[in-house]
Amino acid sequence: MQELTSTFVSRSLVPTTYTRPQLRPKSIVTMAVCMDQSRKEKVVVIMGATGTGKSRLSVALAGRFSGEIINSDKMQFYNGLEIATNQITIPERCGVPHHLLGELPVDDSELTASEFRSVASRSISEISSRGKLPIIAGGSNSFVHALLVDRFDPVTNPFSSKPSISSELRYDCFFLWVDVSVSVLYDYLSKRVDQMMESGMFEELANFYNPRNSRSTIRTGIHRAIGVPEFDRYFGVYPPEKRHNVFEWDQARKAAYEEAVHEIKDNTWRLAKKQIERIMMLRSSGWEIHRLDSTASLRASSREVWETNVLRESVKNVKRFLLKD
Hints:
alpha/beta; Rossmann fold; Helix Hairpins; 2 domains; 10% strand
């Protein structure tokens, strides 16, 4: 068996141009699948609420286990609003290849769970055929479920009031759940929204704003991303300007801005709670999900604490998983 910690061969960081998935697989996928029909491909899946550090952990593990990362966050699939959707930056990727990240045009229609199952499974086969480890990372648990279950029904909502979550998976999966206590995560997400606004999210949303789209009652794709509807309402009253000076705003405009930011914080927290609830539903349905407590590292903002509490435990368990027949 190859050394688990061998480094991957450097590849271009520029993603290939994305086109809507063709259901007929590429030849390399067929070859990879036919190599050994009796063994399932090994896949590591990193789960967690928004802001818990899934991307950070995925990059660290990919560097140690010669892995490549497949994005499973439906908003990060689009090429745009990198700050609002909190896409991992090129420097933060540390040279690790990322797939299905920032590839879909912003004006394209919403990617369905069936389409994600098709393109992501193709990525898994291609990565595995090169002797690399596929690592799934992202917060869209409906996409994760669609990708991994052996039998997928696109009509049924597996997370409905009567859950229909299957425990039969088509890959040999190891699940890592990066979890943070409710109080610490709530405070962190509120501060993160403020940091995102300071980092240019307001300007990004202003450039993205389109009065025609904002009047639509039905939102699809990236237009559903947290931040877009909240500031569409704001820009409907205060249209974007090429230059703006917060200190020149009147009280009404400042209040409208603060209300939009407050709504973003509330909706981000609702998303986090929904993600945690769905992970717990998957766990109670038979998915063997290993929980990692990242509360101390997030509270302390300490890399040392994170490496001790999260990374070291993850490396130990993933190594055991990969060595297992």
